[in-house]
Amino acid sequence: MPPSTSQSTADPPGSPTHDSDSDLDLDLHELDPATSSHRSFNRSGHNRDSSDQRAPRIALRNLRMGGLRRAKRSRGYGELGQDLDNTGDDAEALLDDAERHGSRSMDRDHASGDDAPLLPGGSSSSRRRSFAQEGLGRLSALRSNLRLPGFMGGSGEQQSGRDTSDDQDEEEEDDPSASRLVPVGFADPSRFPPNRISNAKYTAFTFLPVTLYNEFSFFFNMYFLLVALSQAIPALRIGYLTTYIAPLAFVLVITMGKEAYDDIGRRKRDNEANAEEYTVLHFEEPGQAMAAASQRSHRKLKSDSVKRRRRRLLKNGERLSDIREEEERIEGQGLLQSQPSSVVRELPRKSRDLKVGDVLKLSKGQRVPADVVILKCETPETAHDTVAHEDVPTGEEDLLVDPEREPHSSNKGKGPDVRDIVQDNVQDNDVGGPGGETFIRTDQLDGETDWKLRLACPLSQNLPAEEFVRLRVTGGKPDKRVNEFLGSIELLPTKEDAQVLSSTLPGVGDASKSAALSVDNTAWANTVIASQATTFAVIVYTGVQTRSALSTAPSRSKTGLLEYEINSLTKILCAITLALSVILVAIEGFENTEGNVWYVKIMRFLVLFSTIVPISLRVNLDLGKSAYSWFIHRDPGIPGAVVRTSTIPEDLGRIEYLLSDKTGTLTQNDMEMKKIHVGTVSYANEAMDEVVSYVRQGFHVQPTVDPASRKALITPSSTFATTANIGTTRTRREIGTRVRDVVLALALCHNVTPTTEEEGGKTVTSYQASSPDEIAIVRWTEYVGLRLAHRDRKAMVLESTETGRTVVQVRILDVFPFTSEGKRMGVIVQFYESMQSGIPDLDSGEIWFYQKGADTVMGSIVVENDWLDEETANMAREGLRTLVVGRKRLSHQQYREFSRDYQEASLVINGRDASMQRVVSEHLERSLELLGVTGVEDKLQKDVKPSLELLRNAGIKIWMLTGDKVETARCVAVSSKLVARGQFIYTVAKLKRKDNARDHLDFLRSKTDSCLLIDGESLALFLTHFRVEFISVAVQLPTVVACRCSPTQKAEVAELIKEHTKKRVCCIGDGGNDVSMIQAADVGVGIVGKEGRQASLAADFSIEQFHHLTKLLVWHGRNSYKRSAKLAQFVIHRGLIIAVCQTMYSIAIDFEPEGLYKDWLLVGYATIYTAAPVLSLVLDKDVDENLANLYPELYKELTSGRSLSYRTFFVWVLVSVYQGCVIQGLSQLLVEVDGPKMVAVSYTVLVLNELLMVAIEITTWHPVMIVSILGTFLAFVGSIPFLGGYYDLEFIITL
């Protein structure tokens, strides 16, 4: 009988198992030579006395290893691992360790392991022989189950033969960008970056230069800097220097202060994540730990049982120093192995203080703070078993052993040796014991909702925590590929060997054992531990070298579209300023006279007309942005909203493309079984109660007087349960049987494991699985009456929820896990006919094959039927994820034939997977009985459907980018109404050829009303070879769904849309895998998800629900853009009108560059007398909120940019020219051309005109607006008596 597929695979090519000349076979036979003879203990003790006088002998193992190394130098790359069956070596070395421990008082000439003589002169006791022979039998089983790829360990052997210098080796190891050797438990903070999360844009050193560069990259800031600097030249100075310096400094202080405030907020949030505490294992020297034990108490792990054997040494103080001296001497000879390599303490440590090499202790629900390699997974049951196994009572007389007294009795009654414990653990685990498995959630990393199974390497899983310091992990250089990892782990003789940062240890030879590591042995940063097991893991990559950090683009400063538009308008204003200056000088003529140089006059005019480019524009806009951010934060309709980047709120009103994640953004990642169809009838909603009654009847065991009935179990062919249906019709009985069969199939065909935990004093059962779909189905079977009570690798037990009685018990023979290629999973089970503790004989009990999968593959596997296609199509239209369930009964002969062929296929070297699948197809996947179809719903976030519809009506094109599977993405797109009912979905998946890509593009060009569903592989091909063609077609489609996307691909798509369309792109997500996309977007929105806040911390705006996005865009985006556009136009109007007045005045005084309004009048006009009314426009509303939601089409007008365009700009220029000419012209005509009377009239009318213009432009009055206008007018009237230096006050009084 073959073992379960999920835990047994064939040996890799080149495995020593199939090599008749395997060096391992030679080693095993040499452990206990058949020709050796017995010697007495007395003779052994005698020979020991003279051992030091003999010439040193060459260890047989070293001799063999030297031959192997010489042979390997001539091998090719593909043969590097031919002799690396390291598992056998592990156990072999453990046997050697135990032998050395048992023969301390024997002759060193007869020691085993590395000290074995070349020519054996005898052997040890018969006990030693029997122990080694027993180990041989166990090693043969080990070799067949634990295998290592040759290329992993071969590099080390190949390197040992190279002729390279130590300096070069040191350089290579110290390079953090190259592959690394990580000693477990030994942290070296100098070699690798700190483990810090940083979303900050600036540091203390870069803040000033970066912010100043960003500010002066805008044209009008640079313009005003030049104007302000020009006032340092006496010939160009007009009025006070502070008139020009102060406004610029004020603008810079406000802007930089806001940037600093935002960045400090980011740093505070980063510090919260960096301060998260974790439990780290601290390894101490055993001697130091014993000395410190009397002074302080601390938590210990499994070292308690080992230390207990030595604790009583402290009671005999007179002999303690002698014993320690003897132990050190023996340990130096490599003979003392009973003492552990270290003593372990648990210490709390913050995330930012974690280093490469630290060992973490992680529990359920904890975020993984760095990239780690899993060393050990311990469930409460396995932990209890291990401690019980180690905790063997010992006698005091056995702990204090005198080396001079009865050496042959030193092992009598002694507790287990550490190496014995390790050996036992290796054997126990290999025969299928529990442990070594944990589940992680990766949706924060890659967006996939399925839980991922992660495994501890058997080499480290079987070690007690004290021996972790003998491990060393080798990993590749940091990269961003989250689905790939190549590495190895070594178990070295001592912890000192493990801390040597060299790939080759001289003198160690094959005493070290290694195993290959893959991505299945890792957990990347920002994943979450999902199982109940306690997970021990060593940190391999930290900080900026983690997978998630490398997949995340650095933070960048974002600038709104309105800023760029105003920047272009100021260039026009500057051109007007220059043209006016040159024209005024040209009219007078370019002749130079004494004290009147023409180019100086042009410069003075430029300074006078600098108000045309109003520096107060930046101040007003920045204050407006702060007001918009405050409105968003205080909006009761968007609870929990946070504005993290307050420079771009206007862009919320200009969005044309919305790129959304799926998991946690559109969906809750909470599956629920909604519908089941059994061929003739469909059950959903309230009809599920009928299923409950059928299950209650179908799994009811009728009690009888026969005692055997108490142990009777249900099998698929059980008939006695149907006696409860005697009074029902035949049709109802048939339906009841169908329901029972499909519920039983769903309760058995899965990879779900039940776990229990205590919550509030109550025992709560939860389920663990790699797929949330399976958990939803198992929960449904529990709801209808059949609970999964127990599951391990070998068996499953189902209970009735009504009675609590075990009704079904099966033995798992084979499991065929789900793959993205196969799209189905299956299981072969053997049913118990009655309750029993032992494993039933294969010839007894029914054997059934159950399978479930996608309708596209199961349609050809099940028997012909007339309803499957129709029903799956109906469920798909409802947005349900469908699974087709089938079964097939196997005779015992059929199963034996399948098992034999499957085992042979698993040993094939070339095309193994295809051969195994072919056997499954031929023997099992033919004419399955169709049981039913299930429909599972991925629950959507609140109000997702109306929100998406409203955004579509607002003219926003919505793309969904997810890391999840194609089928899942399709179902969510349909259920969320992202794809309209009846809309054609064009799927492009697994595209590998460029010529096929062109065909797809041609089809999409001809059908631009369809939805494109594309996977990451095909998307990568399009982006590589047909970048422009693809995006030009894709942006014309109403909806695009991209699945299996990496974080980098999401960001690339966002950048590509921005680059091609020049439109504003908004990206929304909730996971760490969305950070790159959020930062690449013009506007990034993060949702505070259940699993973390990484996306929220990196986003410009943070919300709690997807439906809050509609108000953020349609209402706040609209108001922000419309208000800022009106505010900018008023500020430009305010500067233009004063420049027109200055022009009129200069013409009247013979084109001389003299100022009309100087000093305080110029500053006061832009601040006290007009600032508050103009700034109050940020409270204006052109439409009501309900109206904006009722007619989302109003949002389309915003995306066209009509509120602030060249057309509106030139309209305001003409208004300014007209008003300026009228005000200054009439003032000069009615009063005088030059003098304080004209200034008083002109300036007063100018201020009153601006207040009147604000009042005219207001759409919706707010109390603040009224107060600001009236208050400003009163402030102006009140300040007139203090303007005697500029006004003719006597003239004012006469008016």
UniProtKB/TrEMBL annotation:
> Which GO molecular-function terms appear in the entry?
ATP binding; ATP hydrolysis activity; ATPase-coupled intramembrane lipid transporter activity; magnesium ion binding
Which reactions are catalysed by this chain?
Answer: a 1,2-diacyl-sn-glycero-3-phosphoethanolamine(out) + ATP + H2O = a 1,2-diacyl-sn-glycero-3-phosphoethanolamine(in) + ADP + phosphate + H(+); ATP + H2O + phospholipidSide 1 = ADP + phosphate + phospholipidSide 2
Predominant subcellular localization, coarse grouping: membrane
Q: Name one GO cellular component term.
A: trans-Golgi network
Write down the membrane topology: Multi-pass membrane protein
Per UniProt, ATP binds at 661-663, 774, 818, 852, 881, 962-964, 1044, 1050, 1073-1074
Under which main EC class is this enzyme filed?
translocase
Q: Where is the P-type ATPase C-terminal domain?
A: 1097-1287
Q: Cofactor(s) for this protein?
A: Mg(2+)
Going by the UniProt record, its keywords in alphabetical order are: ATP-binding, Lipid transport, Magnesium, Membrane, Metal-binding, Nucleotide-binding, Translocase, Transmembrane, Transmembrane helix, Transport
For this protein, the record's NCBIfam families field holds: ATPase-Plipid, ATPase_P-type
Task: List, alphabetically, the PANTHER family matched.
Answer: PHOSPHOLIPID-TRANSPORTING ATPASE, PROBABLE PHOSPHOLIPID-TRANSPORTING ATPASE
> What is the protein's name according to its record?
Phospholipid-transporting ATPase
The lineage is: Eukaryota, Fungi, Dikarya, Ascomycota, Pezizomycotina
